[in-house]
Amino acid sequence: MATILSNGFPVYSVNIIPKESLKQTLQTYAESIRYHVLYLFIKTRLLRLSQSTGTLAPCQTMLISILAAISSAIFILFLYPIKLIILSVSLCLKDPKIPATSPIKAFVRKLQDICTKTLYINSDTLHETPESSPFLKTFLVPETASWKCLNLEHEILKLFPTIPMPWAKIITHIHAKYLKNRNTSSTQEVSYEGSLYYSTMQKLTATLQDPTISTQRKQDLLNYIGSYACACPPTWIEVTFRELVEIYNKQDTGINHVLFCVQMFKENLLQFITNRSSEEWHHIAGFKHYHGRSLGLNMDALARIQFTSHLILKKQALYNRLYKRFLSHYRASVKNLIEYIRDQISESSQELKNSLSSYLCETMRAFQLPEHEIPSVLSSLFYDTQLELNSTGITFILLMQGILTTGPQTTLEKIMCRP
Question: How many domains would you assign to the chain?
C-alpha cells in the first residue's frame, strides 16, 4: 500500500495492488484444497499437542505421520468434490478486467479524492498570518517627501471629468482638519493622526501615478474608497490601506501571498458583517482589539490611529457577538475562500505564479514523484486550459498549509465544498 504522509496525502508508489475479483477469490480457495496442505496442517497440529506432554520418541513421531496421512486422505475424499464445485462456479464467472490504471493515474486519483472531500476550516491555524509585505512596512513609516492635496486632485482629474462629490468631501475634510496646519500645529493628536492621513493620501497618489495599474482599476479604487465618504474619517484610512495593500501584495512571491489572500478574505468578511455607519472603523478597531490576533487579522492597519479605551470597554458585548457572527460566516465560506484566492492569483504577477508553480513542484518531489512525471501531473490536476491554477490546485495548497482540513473538528461546524 502507498505510504500516507501526516497531512493525509499519499507518497507516490509504482506498486498498484488491484482488488481480487470473486472469480479470483474462489480459485484461490479451491487451489488451497490440496493433499499435502492438509497433511502438513494435521501433522503440525498433532505434533504440537503431543509435545505438550513431553519429548516424543521416534516411533511416536512415525505414528503421528501415519495418522496424519490417513486423516488427510479421508478429508481430501470429502473436500475434493467441494473443490470441483468451487472451480465449476468460478469458470462460469467472467474473467476480471485487467486494470489499465497506471501508477501515475492512481496517484493523481488519490490526490483528487483528497482534494474533493468534505473540507473544513482548520481551527488550529485561524491565528496564522502572513509575513508583512514591503509595502506594509513602508506604509507605517511617515512620509518625508513633499506632497499637497493638489497632487491627488490632479491625478483624480486624469480619471474623471470632475472631482467626484465623495472625494471632494474627503479631501476637504482631511485638508481642513489634518493637513492645513500640519507644519504649525503643536498638538500631538493632529501630528499623530495627521501624519498617517498625509502618508496614506501620498501613497494613494503614487498608486494613481503607477503605469502598471490599469485606468479601470484606478477608477474602481477611487469609487470604492469614495463609497465610504459618509463613514468616519478613520474608516477612509482603513479602507484605503486595505485596498492599497491588496494591490501591491499581488507582487509578493511565494506561498506567503496565499496566506495574505486568506487574511484579506477575513478582512473583507469582517467589513461585510460590520454595519456601514459613522462608527464602522470603531467597530473594526474594537473587534480587532479583542479578537483580531486569534483570528489572524491584520493588526498593523490600525496601529497608528488612537481611539479611546472607553469605547472599547463599552461595547465589549457587541464585539463578542460580532465574533460569533464572524466565525459562523467564515465556517460557511470554504468554497468562497477557494474561489477568492483563485481570482487573486489569476490577477497577480507572473513572478508570483512561477513561485507557486515551483512550490507545487517541490511538493511533488517530497511525494517521491518521478521528476519526468511532475509536469504532466501538475498540468492535469492543478491547472486549467489557460494554465491558471484551478480550484483543486488552490485547495491542495490550502490543505498543505493547514488552512483547510479534511478531518471534522468538534469546534467548527461541517462545511461542504463542491468546487
Answer: 3
